Each structure stands twice: as C-alpha cells, then as structure tokens.
Amino acid sequence: MRQPRSYNGGMLPHDLFSGAPAPFGTGNGAGATGVSSQAVQPLLQNLNPEQLAAVTLPAGHALILAGAGSGKTRVLTTRIAWLLQNGLATPGGILAVTFTNKAAKEMLTRLSAMLPINVRGMWIGTFHGLCNRLLRAHHKLAGLPQAFQILDTQDQLSAIKRLCKQFNVDEERFPPKQLAYFIAGCKEEGMRPRDVPAHDADTRKKVELYQLYEEQCQREGVVDFGELMLRSFELLRDNDPVRAHYQRRFAHILVDEFQDTNKLQYAWLKQMAGDVVDGCLHTQGSVLAVGDDDQSIYAFRGARVGNMQDFVREFDVQHQIKLEQNYRSYSNILDSANALISHNSRRLGKNLRTTQGPGEPVRIYEANSDLAEAQWMVDEIKQLVRDGEMPRKEIAVLYRSNAQSRVIESALFNASVPYRVYGGLRFFERAEIKHALAYLRLLENPHDDTSFLRVVNFPPRGIGARTLEVLQDAARSSGCSLHDAVSAVPGKAGTNLGAFVALVQVLREQTQGQNLRGIIGQVLESSGLLEHYRHEKEGADRLENLDELINAAESFVTQEGFGRDAVALPLDEHGNALTQSPASQGLDPDAPMLNAPGNVDADTGETLSPLAAFLTHAALEAGDNQAQAGQDAVQLMTVHASKGLEFDCVFIGGMEEGLFPHENSMSDRDGLEEERRLMYVAITRARKRLYLSHSQTRMLHGQTRYNVKSRFFDELPEEALKWITPRQAGFGSFAPDSGAARAYQSGARGQFGFKTEVFASPPVPPVKAAPGHGLRVGLAVFHTKFGEGKVLAIEGADADARAQVHFPRHGTKWLALSVAKLTIVE
DNA sequence: GCGCGCCACTTTTTT
DNA sequence: AGTGGCGCGC
C-alpha cells in the first residue's frame, strides 16, 4: 500500500505518520506556518530551509540533489536521527547504504553523537557489507557455506589465471585481467553466464570461462565482490518470504552517493523496497536517495548516473530537493566550479551558491617542467605554513593519475616537508599480510585453492611448478580441492606436499581453543613466515606489518566483538558498549531472521568463528594505506581519492591536455564530461585557496612530453582567476597581463585541441641563444629515423623549442628541436 | 626449484 | 622510470 504524499515546504506533515508518538514533541510546535523549530528540536538547529525540508520529509520516495559541500552527510544522519527521535522509525527499520567503509563509519559516528542509541542492529553499511550480512544470515538459501570467504581483486585475478592455465586458455587472446573485468562487468549488469548475449566466438569463450570461474568459486566456497552483490540480489529476488520480510522491515531506506550506483545495486535497492506488479513498483517503505550527478566520477567502473532519472520515474518520486547552499568555499572557487560544470550537457541542473565573499582569486601557475611545478608547489606550501596561514594537513595536492605523485613527493621530501600519500597498497593488500591471511583462511577452509597456492611454497619449501601442475591435474580429474588431492594420492605422506598439508593440519589442531591473537601468532611462527622475513634484508617493514596484523586482530575483537557484524560499536564514556533491549529495537521475536545480526545464520543462530569473522573483515575493509595518520602532513592524493574531503588549500597539478582531461577519456563526449566532473570535484574540495598549475614539459613513462594547458582553463571565469606565473627568460612563459599572454590563452586550436601557430617569442632575449630552427607550421621536414613528415605545430623557443610533426609511417610526434635531427625538405 | 634479468605495461578505484 | 611477470640458466 502506498502512502499518500504531499509536500508543504518540508514542514512536518505529521498526519502522514499515523499515530506515531513523537517523544521530543515535534507535534506540538513546528507546523506548516514555519514555526522556528530550533527551540523545539535541537536536532534541527542551524539547518537551512532545504536541509530542514529534506530531514523532515514525509513518508514517500525522495531524491535529494546535494551539491558539493552542501551538508549532505549531515542531512542523511539528521534524517535518521529525526525519524528515530520522533518514533517514525525504529533502529531495526532503517537501512542506510553507502559505498565506502569510511562513509558508513562517519554516519555511525555522527549518529551516535546525536542520539544515545546503540547503532548495532541498525543496517548501516556499505553495499557489500550489507550483502555479506544477508548472505551469512541466509547462506543456505543462497547456496553458500556460512564461512564463505571473500576474494579481493588480487585473489580474483589469481583465481582466473589458475583457471586459464587449467583449461589451456590462450592468455594472449584472453588476458586474465580482461576476463576479470568482463566477469565483474557481467555481474554488475546482473548477468549470469546464461544471460550474457554472445554473438561472436570470443564472447562465447569468455562466457564459457565465466561459467567455469563460477563453478570453481562455488567449489571452493569463495565469492568475489561482484558475487556478494549479485548473489544477495538473487536471494531477495527468488525467495518471496525473505524479500517480503525485509521489505516489511525496512520502512526507511537511505542511499548515499546514489549517482555512483550501478545497475545491479539499483536493482538490489528495488528488491529491498518493493515488488513490481503489472509493470508498476509497489513499495511499502520510503527510499531517500542522496546524490549529485555532477560528482559522478565512476562511470568507468559501472556507475550509472541514469539511475537517478530511473529512480524518479520508477519510484514515482514526489519530493525532489536541491541542496545548493555551499558551506565550504568562497565564491571565486564556487564560481569557477559552476562555470566549469556548466559546459556539461544532460545535467539535472544545480548551481552552488554561498553567502561567503569572493575570497582569494584562483591562482594559476605555468611551469616549465613537472620538476619546476613540484618545486613551485613546495615553495608555496612552505610559505603558507611559515606564514601561519594553515596547518600542513589543511593543504592538499591533487592530481589526475598516481604517476604524478612521484615528482611532488621527492620535492617535498627534499624540502623536508612532511607529507602523506593516499592510495597505493592498503594494509590488508600487502603481500606479507596476504600470505598470513592465506594461512588463516586455510585453517578455516582447506578447500580454498587460491590460498593454498599462495602459500604452499611460501616460504619456499621445495614445491615447484611441476609438482603443483601434477597436483592440479589430480584435483581436477577427481573433482576435489588441492588439499584433498594431496591426501587422496597415496605415497604423498613423505613428500614436501604432504608435509605442507600436515603443517596446516597441525596448525589447525594447535590453534584449537586459542584466541584470535594466539591463533595468528602461532600461524606466523609455525608457518615460517616470521623466520623467512627475519632473514630477508628488506624484511623489517614486513615483520612490523605482521606485528600490526596481530594488533588489528586484537582491536577487531575488542571493538567489533567477534561473531558480530563489522560495524563499529558505540561506546559510552567508560568504554562500555551501549546496549538496548530487543523490544526497543522494534524487532519481531517471532521472526527469527529479524534478529539476525551480521555473520549469524538467521535460522540456526550459528555464527562465524572469530577467525572467520576477522577474515571477512579483512576482505571487506582493506584498511588504511598509511600508518602515520594524525601527523600534520601535506595530503597527496588523486582527484578520485579526494571525493568527499575538503581542505583549506588545494593544489591541482598537471592541468594539461592529455593528462587532465586524460587522453584515454577524450575520445568520446561522455569521457570528456566525466573528466570535467572530476575537475569539478577537485575544485570544490577547496575552502579558501585554490591553485591550478600546468607544465610545458613532463616526464611520462620515461619520456619527455610536451603538453598544452588544459582546455578546462578556458571554461573558468576570467574574473575569478589570477595568473601568477612569473616572467621568465627563454621559456615562453608570460606575465599575466602581457599581450603575449592573451594571444597564448586564446590561441587557435587545432583538431587535437593543441594550440597551433601560437609562436611564443620570449620576453627577454635568451642568454644562450640556440640557432634559429627556421621551421614553420606546414613545412615538410625530414627526420633520420622517421623519414619525411609535416610540421603541425611549434611550441617554445630556442633551447626549449619543439615541434609536432606528423610522419605518415610513424604517426604524430612531438620533437625537441635541440635534439631531433630535422632537416627542412625543399 | 630458485634466482636473475629482460620485457612489457602504465587512468581514475571501492568493495 | 618503475614495477611486475615470465622465461631461461644454474
């Protein structure tokens, strides 16, 4: 049954929540007349009208278009708190989904700060975390062992490689990476092998491998990330009582970062929300989706912004609220963001505004080289810190691709400026940690062949590829796991393989009854891992990490409580867990599945071992990348990684055609628009000060490249900018107000967006004058290696001069004229 | 079975 | 440039 919906400016349509008690007295004060809610509702203090409207929306589906820095997380958490506080929802009736563990934790932390409730038992988590919870609770229906393990991307790839070897797949024609991508893509689309349209031989082969991969995973009792989603979607879809139960239970579904959902996640949400009857969606609860189409930067991994439009249509969304008031940045920064993003088509339409003044202009710097760019950043950062403008941790350097961080890192390092790099390998992804986890997984599940192969010969114990090949053949022909294949073949007892299996067996027995810390300590020692790294010369870090693994396990046990869900438990001021009686959680004692927290079988109440729970935690939460948190350090990260963060001061480096926008995404309009959204995200990270920089030359893949400044500069409002590049001799840089700068900025662009025919004569005669090269655009030239070609463009001057030349046989290349041997063809 | 050296690769990333 | 994977030689 659908509730009637109305919208009266967001002002408390209490009649829609029939008979719900309002413990904090919402019912007696605030009304449609807009009575100040501050006095009545401390929760709602300092919310602007749009935020207030969103927080207090009546039942029914809603889409909140929340611009960057508009208080999105605040609205989400306050909404939940408001629902609970007014008795419009019970903790058990709320489902809140995010994409990252960080966002989920943030929500839980804020929520427990607002309300004195136990957030355990609330379904707040990542898509994958909640799917895990569902599958553990209903593992029999889902066809999985309760202690199924989760493959991360690395594990998945090695599982696929193993499969390819086994079935003699030509890895040239079907690269395992691509297969992994294909399989993940299929799952994101909700397709099992039989659902994939295969019109050509290649696709048929891939589908066949997909099928084999599925069988392998099933046999080994492991699931990949995509499988978590797909399997739980199917669980809901195919089991009416289960689906009905959750639909009845979750009166309020809230989705964060909705623009990042893929097709499957949206379908999953629909299953949770209601059933489609006669092509029409019938829902019981309310779905509140919060998102920003302008911040959709994950199309490359299956995110579908179109889900926002589909949601409005299919859920017949009645309430759409735009949060456009920005509390983060000064208007020069905001105007820049707005101007840039206005160049995108097909937007839902949204313009950020602020009551803050213009603030400082956006500073733009042109460097001669990536090295100089990095050095300039460091100088600027040092000055900011020296002047006491802001602490280092409030300064972020953002870049488009990870490769760019190296130069900046070394510049910071040489200047002894503390910095922290985000990204790269995370804790649970480090090799030594994965090795340790593989041993632990074998204790839980000896049939996990991926883990078996990972450590069967690590540390080296004389088991080579040949031996394993034979073993794998034996396992395949008898359809069993590698572990069982060892035991099945008689006469293996005395071999290295037999010894390995025995080792795992002994470990399993030895660790019986031990606590998690003891188990891991024992495994690290008896496996020989510690011994191995003690002898390795670079092993000290690894030993430290392994030690850290024990600590992580320790804090997992004390913080999370084993056998429970991997959701942070709120503690009172004495460090005790806050608890709440089942009755007040609104759980129906007659329905067993209601009471199932994470990692517990909904029917039997059976729960995972502490070890298995920890392994799940390790897979779902890869951990932080860097240990030295909390230090006052400059923050380095990709633009993608910066989403959701904010800093007083932001540097965006490498603003060059081919880098940002990245050349691989410039072929189609969608790609370019995503790059623009990425830039939009980057700009809106800054609160007070924003620097953009580009460099004329850059080392990339060991080669010097000549780059033109990014087209995105042309899409920023001139009046908000300040070009701060100093006048320099001999490098074709310009003072901001020179005529040359104008010409430079508005130079005609050729078919690749490179500027052509813009000839920069240096403001000051060069000290070391290189001989004039005499080249002109359009001239035919001869190169000793590439043969005859045609000059397309010329840039720089003197020693720094270079030309873009098209060679019929070798394509288009940029050549440094001081190096390349070019002769003009008469 | 192990280790060295060569070759190919290189957008963004969470779970 | 730097890394990871693979193949060859010991």
UniProtKB/TrEMBL annotation:
GO terms for cellular component: cytosol; DNA helicase complex. Belongs to the helicase family. UvrD subfamily. Residues 331-644 form the UvrD-like helicase C-terminal domain. This is DNA 3'-5' helicase. GO terms for biological process: recombinational repair. Gene3D superfamilies: 1.10.10.160, P-loop containing nucleotide triphosphate hydrolases, PCRA, domain 4. ATP binds at residues 66-73. GO terms for molecular function: 3'-5' DNA helicase activity; ATP binding; DNA binding; hydrolase activity. It catalyses: Couples ATP hydrolysis with the unwinding of duplex DNA by translocating in the 3'-5' direction; ATP + H2O = ADP + phosphate + H(+). Keywords: ATP-binding, DNA-binding, Helicase, Hydrolase, Isomerase, Nucleotide-binding. Signal peptide: none annotated. It is an enzyme of class 5 (isomerase). Its EC number is 5.6.2.4.
